[in-house]
Amino acid sequence: ELRGEKTAEEFETLIDVKINAYIPSSYIYSEEQKLEMYKRISEIKSENDFLDVQDELLDRFGEVPECVQNLLDIAILKSNAHRIGVVSIIQKNENIVIKFKPDSDADVSKLLEAVKNSDKKLLLSGGETPYLTYKTDNSDNKFITNINKLMKELQ
After folding, report:
1. What Cα–Cα distance (Å) separates residue 110 from each residue in 8, 17, 89, 113, 143?
2. Quick one: average pLDDT of 103-120?
3. How wide is the angle at C-alpha 90 spanned by C-alphas 84 and 92, nearest 5°?
4. Are 50 and 123 in contact (CB under 8 A)?
C-alpha cells in the first residue's frame, strides 16, 4: 500500500470438478503446440480471450472436441469466479461447493436472488467464509455452463 492506495490481495481460484478437460493427442499431435495451447488457455482472463483461443483452435486444428471445449469453459469459469472473490469450486459427489473469500466482491443481493430463483439447486451458507452449494445430478452435464452463468450474474 502506497499513499493510501488499496492493493488487491493475491489469491488463487481452485477448480476441481469431475469432467474430462484436456487436449488429446488425436486433436493436436505436436507436444510443443499442445503445450503452447495449454499456456494460451491458462491465460484466459476475459470473454474476448476465451473467444480468441476458441477461434484459434478451430482455425489451426479443426472442430474443437468436447474435452477441449470443457478445458476452455473451465478457464473462463476460473477467471469469472476469481473476479468476484471465489477461492474454490470443488465437486463433492453431486454437489459443487463454491467458496468465497471473506471479503469477496460478490454482490450479496444478487447472491440471494440467485438462490431464490435456483429451484432449490443453490444453497447459501453464511459465516466468516461464505459458500454456495450447487446441487447437480448425473444428468446435469452442463453444470460448468450453469455455474459460469451464475458467476457472471454475481459480478
Report:
1. 23, 24, 18, 5, 19
2. 83
3. 145
4. no
Helix (H) or strand (E) holding 123: strand 122-125
Reduced 3-state DSSP string for 36-99: HHHHHHHCCCCHHHHHHHHHHHHHHHCCCCHHHHHHHHHHHHHHHHHHCCEEEEEEECCEEEEE
Distance CA 154, CA 135 (A): 18
pLDDT in tens, 9-63: 689 999 999 999 999 999 999 999 999 999 999 999 999 999 999 999 999 999 9
Query: In this structure, what C-alpha cell is assigned to residue 153?
Result: 450474474
Query: Grid coordinates representing 39?
Result: 499456456
Instruction: State the pairing for strand pair 122-125/86-92.
Output: unpaired
Cβ pair 87, 98 in contact under 8 A:
no
What are the cell numbers at 121?
Answer: 439447486
